[in-house]
Amino acid sequence: MIRGITGHTKILGVxxxxxxxxxxxxxxxxxxxxxxxxxxxxxxxxxxxxxCQAIDGFFACESILGFNLTIPHKQxxxxxxIEVSPIAQAVGAVNTIKRSTLGWIGTNTDVxxxxxxxxxxxFNLEAVLVLGSxxxxxxxxxxxxxxxIKKIHVVGRNPxxxxxxxxxxxxxxxxxDQIENLLTHLDLVVNCTPIGMAEQPGSPLNKQQIDxxxxxxxxxxxxxxxxxxxxxxxxxxxxxxTIDGLEMLLYQGALALEFWLEVPAPxxxxxxxxxx
Length: 276
Ligand code: NAP
Known about the structure:
By secondary structure, the protein is an alpha/beta fold. The protein is built from 10 helices and 12 strands. The strands form 2 sheets. Strands 2-1-3-5-6-4 form a 6-stranded mixed β-sheet. A 6-stranded parallel β-sheet has the order 9-8-7-10-11-12, sandwiched between helices. A hairpin with a 4-residue loop joins strand 5 and strand 6 (104-107). Helix 1 crosses helix 10, helix 4 (110-121) packs across helix 5 and helix 4 crosses helix 9 (245-261). It binds NADP nicotinamide-adenine-dinucleotide phosphate.
């Protein structure tokens, strides 16, 4: 993995907390190697209370050309940017920034990363259920709007966050205990909660609820470890089309690389690097 790092090597990376679990260094370093570029991509664990210090310090270091942001920094970065792309403004969160002469500029590649595998499937999508009301749910909602999905339902456990989402986006929100009224009408279900990750095992929908979905419903889980998640296992057992979080990780990463370097990303190589 370590290439000929010299005094000229430029730095990209991902800032988050925690971030050591990230597959992005594997994916991006392989891409940079294949592109023959003198860059390295690193993970930067930065706790929330040191964030402002880190952002200013990174700008002072001229070899750092850009980086991704993940939990918990995607919204906090907004006030540190001199320019925010329209898509990041629509989401209210930034996952990729790059250096310009006067300061950091930011965008959001999660939206297009989410959409990409759905576009490949070319299904007719009219009604979606988004599970969860956090940062990823916002990118997914903007993605659904871009796809022209007419009915966007959101289920969450936090009434004030649901209220906020309903004010920000054209969505209808519901508490979890009303989920069963929605299931029979959906073309797409997207899990934007951490339920199903190693730290929160389980599935946001149980078998009976999965059985209520139409045979054409696509089940999309943003989680990429484990693969498949319990949710996707249940959906696959019913014969439904499923998409896992590795797809979104891959495409948001490819778009971030193109934003930084302005060269086409080697998607096949990046996919291989993360075991897709
Ligand atoms: P977040 O901002 O913390 O939001 C998580 C949401 O899930 C919140 O609405 C939270 O509710 C809800 N939630 C958490 N535990 C729950 C439970 N036990 N029951 C019901 N709801 C629960 O996190 P995020 O950034 O949106 O990320 C969400 C998931 O997407 C994570 O698993 C993350 O790894 C994944 N993700 C994947 C990609 C990718 O590229 N594949 C990109 C981004 C995110 P409260 O608001 O009440 O806490």
